[in-house]
From TrEMBL:
The chain crosses the membrane at residues 39-60, 67-90, 96-118. This is Uncharacterized protein. It comes from the Bacteria. Keywords: Membrane, Transmembrane, Transmembrane helix.
């Protein structure tokens, strides 16, 4: 449970770090930017709400809950994958692409840990 919880929190931190990196280098007026702090706060709040279920589900050890967590993390992985492709094409900044790739790797590790980690009840 501890490793799944820590990796889920790491995915959240990397997801937010990627967004903050993108806010540091806005590409246009419609991009997220630190010039509009309310949009940055809403973006981070939305990401926390979006990534809260895997963190909560990591606290439980039942097989059904773990399957739901893996499906949800798979959806997150798909969104991170497409985000990284868009960043690689549209953004000239390598740092945001690196954070996108790290987020994808952390999500894959979380999925593998959720599949493989099992502790029998006493």
């Amino acid at each position: 449970m501890n490793s799944r919880l820590l990796w889920s929190i790491l995915v959240l931190v990397l997801y937010i770090t990627t967004s903050l990196t993108l806010a540091s280098y806005p590409k246009s007026d419609n991009s997220i930017s630190f010039d509009k702090p309310m949009e940055v706060a809403l973006n981070i709040g939305t990401q926390i709400i979006f990534l809260l279920p895997p963190i909560i589900l990591a606290c439980f050890n039942h097989i059904a809950v773990r399957i739901i967590a893996v499906i949800y993390l798979g959806l997150i992985l798909i969104s991170v994958f497409f985000l990284t492709i868009i960043l690689a094409i549209a953004s000239p900044y390598v740092l945001s692409v690196i954070f996108g790739v790290l987020t994808g790797i952390a999500t894959i590790v979380t999925i593998v840990l959720t599949f493989t980690t099992y502790r029998k009840a006493l």
